[in-house]
Amino acid sequence: MKVFWLFLLIAMILPATINGGQAQESAANLTGNAERGKTLFTAAFKCASCHGTTGESGSPRLVPMRRTQADFIRFVQKPTANAMPAFGDQSPQALADVYAYIKSIPERTPPSVQSIPVLNDVLKTIP
Amino acid sequence: MSERTGKSKNTGVGRRRFLKGAAVSAAALVTNTPAESAPALPTVRPSVAAPTEAAALAEMGLALPAQAAVQASAAVAPVPASDFMVDVLKTLDLDYVAVNPGSAFDGLHESLINYGQNKKPEMLTCLHEEQAAAISHGYAKAAGKPMMIAVHGTVGLLHASFGIFQAWCDRVPMLVFVGHNRNPTSNINRPHSAQDMGAIARDYTKWDDEATTLERFAEAAVKAYTYGRTPPMGPTLLVVDSALQESRIQDRSRLRIPALTMPAPPQGDTNAVKEAARFLVNAQTPLITIGKVARTPKGWDLMIELAELLQAPVFVGTYGSWQDFPNRHRLNGRGGAGYRPDVTLGLELNDMSAAARNARANGGKTISICAEYLSQGRNIHDYGNYSEVDVAIAADAEATLPSLIEEIRRLTTPDKRTAFDARGAKIAAAHHEERVKQLEEARFGWDVSPISIQRMIAELGAQIKNDDWSIGSGHQFTGDWQRVLLNFDKHHRYWGDCGGFGIGYDTQAAVGVALANKGTGRLTVAIVGDGDLNFGPGTLWTAAHHKIPLLFLVHNNRGYQAEVMIVQRMCSQRGRGTDNAHIGTTLNNPDIDYTKIAQGYGLYAEGPVTDPNKLAPALQRALARVRAGEPALVDVISQAR
Question: What is the pTM of this model?
Answer without folding.
Answer: 0.86
